[in-house]
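Translate sequence into structure tokens.
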Amino acid sequence: MSEEIFLLPDVGEGLVEAEIVEWKVKVGDVVTLNQPLVDIETAKATVELPSPYSGTILTLHGNPGDIIEVHQPLITFDVGGAGPKSKAKTSTKPSPAATIDEPQAELVSDEGRQAVLVGYGVANEDAVPTRKHRRQGAATPAPTAAPTAPVAAVLTSPGLAARSTPPVRLYAKQHGVELDGLNGTGRDGLITRDDVQRALQGSPSAARASAPITGPTTTSRFVGREIESWATGAKEERIAVKGVLRSMSEAMVQSAFSAPHAAVWVRIDATKTVELLESLKRHPNLAGVRLSPLTITALAVCDAARNFPGINSSFDNEAHEVVVRRSVNLGIAAATDRGLIVPNIKGADQLDLVAMASALNVLVEKARNGTTTPNEMIGTTLTITNVGPMGVDAAMPILPPGTGAILAIGQIAKAPWVVDDAVVVRHVVELAMSFDHRQIDGAMASIVLAHIGRFLSDPAPALIAG
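Result follows.
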């Protein structure tokens, strides 16, 4: 027997811990290189870790819900005679050379050694991220099970678990829906939340329901998590603040008490934006392109950053410098089942109408399905939060750390408006911008917000010129 210990890798910049969401293997399973092993939830996203070895699972170092520190044991493998002659030591650190975001991991293989994923198997890194007030959950090994059939047989087994994401699996479990019989409509057959909802509504593709859920099933939303409603009669409910929720709470506290927030707002007539969108949706060349007011607003924000680069900046506390960026990584605040996340569109200032619409749709769909990657959560320079769909007129948002400004869009609603001294009904929307007053003063913020307002008041000329 030759053992190798897979240590939890850093799948994002500065990751110090992750929560085990779901094991995809058990003790005794024979796995192949790159086979999915476990879903983990980091402070930024839910990530599926592939196997760095081919071999047999000896130990799972933790149970679902446990918190594991980076570079601590996650799985122990028996790699047969292909691995090192001596057992691997738990002090071994994985190389951070590769990340989960790579479309295809590079393999290395030395004579007499099992091929492993670059960044996972080779032990040569000594630095361990520091952590503050973190608690590592009890790592109770899973019970030993008899070896299963060969991997090839397992992969063709009709009992193989349906492909989905942790948030969707949790949602299905809470509502008593079995995933095995569902037809996934996501990419590569991925089962989405919408598929589960269709099953709940009695769609022909619905799977058999599991044991009925006892008691009231009415739920309400709080900080992005499903919780029991008031109808249960419970005196209180405690929700563990970890993963995305913990990241969100820490980021908001850091931002609120480190950056001096200020805000400006304006109310505009967005009738021409509404009319333009309706016209574009009927255009045959744009069939299938999902356009919305958010699409136009994203283009307006990028246009403002091109004209007034100072808004696309951050404040470097250590160097006491303002960092003005020449490319916009546009963050879009998204409320998900796991909490509030802010993925971003890299190089958004280079996108035209169709490309922006496509990028926004992909971003929203991935956030909804829980497939946002850690790389899509870092590097935001400007942010939009759209509170309109919740029926809210305005908001004063807190800045995501490391950014200089965030725009909030309220609902577009019909309201009386004065046009040529006559009161008429128009589509009106409220815009509010919070900004870091260390590098952005009120004059610049006002000029930028007014520019965005003019863009939305009559977007056609800017789109044609762009």
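Note: DSSP finds nine helices and 23 strands in the chain.
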